[in-house]
Amino acid sequence: MTASPSDPTAAPAGPRTRSRADRARQVAEVLRRQIASGAFPSGVLPDERSLIADHGTSRNTVREALGVLRDEGVVERRQGVGTVIRRRTYEHTLERLTGLAETLSAYGRVSNEVRVADVIRPPREVARKLCVPDGGQVVYIERLRRLGDDPLSLDLTYLTTDVGRPLLDADLAGRDLFSLIEESVGGPLGSASVTVHAVNADPGTSALLATPPGQAVFTVERLTRLPDGRPVDLEFLRVRGDRLAFRAELDRGTGVLDSPTGDDR
Amino acid sequence: MTASPSDPTAAPAGPRTRSRADRARQVAEVLRRQIASGAFPSGVLPDERSLIADHGTSRNTVREALGVLRDEGVVERRQGVGTVIRRRTYEHTLERLTGLAETLSAYGRVSNEVRVADVIRPPREVARKLCVPDGGQVVYIERLRRLGDDPLSLDLTYLTTDVGRPLLDADLAGRDLFSLIEESVGGPLGSASVTVHAVNADPGTSALLATPPGQAVFTVERLTRLPDGRPVDLEFLRVRGDRLAFRAELDRGTGVLDSPTGDDR
């Protein structure tokens, strides 16, 4: 196969012809990542001519790429200004165990609407994961989290009672659970197992998170343990995909962190 | 606040009344995670009576929870059998740098339709991330990945020419890029920076991945480096959210892996 250094997004000698939609998606991926990583601090994208030069592609492809991002709600066209960023997606690290508010406090005021805070008998699977005996109780906290005025996530949290009871009288509306738990246990948390799904929001979730129906959301399960390996905190988060992204640094070697309690699945 | 050990999903003395949709979502989160982690090897969910007991909730709440999972395409009701799992979501680890095929080969045959494999002049931002000088070239590979007959992801890969050129003659349809790259460079890869977004698929992506319009998909950017820190492989993946989830083990301490090249944003 030969070099075709003219238009990098034009169909080269591949096994099938690529459509303009293919090329536009290719441009949109790069732009989305630049926007999320803060590459355009002015909040305005480079003009069409610059984008055509940067991506070595046609005007129509650039326009279609901007259309993809517009449909996703990432950018909008503003008369006399250009293509402006509507909403930035913030990056939350998965490199270490960090509360969302710790990441987001740099970008605005994080507040929580406490929907439930009580002692309950948990679903059997939740009891199993928290090593709570049959018939035992847990503390259940449900919060709607906002960044500024915009809903960001709906957080369902199950805590073992020893760790959770003191939190029922704490400032759940204003503070991160991690720091409250660390005050409650008198020391740092240990490790966590995290699983991240991408799903279309059901109507109830869309309404709560103030998104269009079917908005792509992350559902995150996070099981957090004390340094001695005992699980104390099981959370199910629904996070707006248009507000948050996850970031991690990986290594080709063996797993760098092993769950102290082994496989909890 | 007092204990209400009867129905854990019923509205306790929280600041506002929760709807049945709230309680159904709570049940659905737990079930989705159980399905993804392989808790129902028969492929059939426990019957309604068992689910009511396990979750300590009402029949109507269980039915609404199953409705949420049905709308997501996770389960379906089959006459005379019960609620069966339509499609399992597989978990891909973010604990270490692993190719998707390495994870998925346990579940079926992974194959790739090679859409493009050529030498191109990359978009400026791609050149910057791969430390390719202005006007330089890269190898571009675009593949549609399938697990069995079902499309799983669309992978756009930019490789530095020294690493990528030998791959143009390799078995791109049958093999994982990571193992091909490691053959090409004669040793293991080093580290990678990964960012994961959740977006609604544009019409072109939906068509390629054979999903309903607007399906929630992950868009993954992965920049992979050699052990000496030199970036050689920049990938943009679109992965069906109903087929794959990401999993990681985190630590409350400082970052466990630092990018050898520092912050590449």
TrEMBL record, chains A, B:
It comes from the Bacteria. It holds the Pfam family GntR. Residues 21-88 form the HTH gntR-type domain. Keywords: DNA-binding, Transcription, Transcription regulation. Gene3D superfamilies: Chorismate lyase-like (3.40.1410.10), Winged helix-like DNA-binding domain superfamily/Winged helix DNA-binding domain (1.10.10.10). Residues 1-24 are annotated as: Disordered. The keyword Transcription regulation applies. InterPro entries: Bact_HTH_transcr_reg, Chorismate_lyase_/UTRA_dom_sf, Tscrpt_reg_HTH_GntR, UTRA, WH-like_DNA-bd_sf, WH_DNA-bd_sf. Residues 1-15 have a biased composition (Low complexity). This is GntR family transcriptional regulator. It comes from Streptomyces chrestomyceticus.
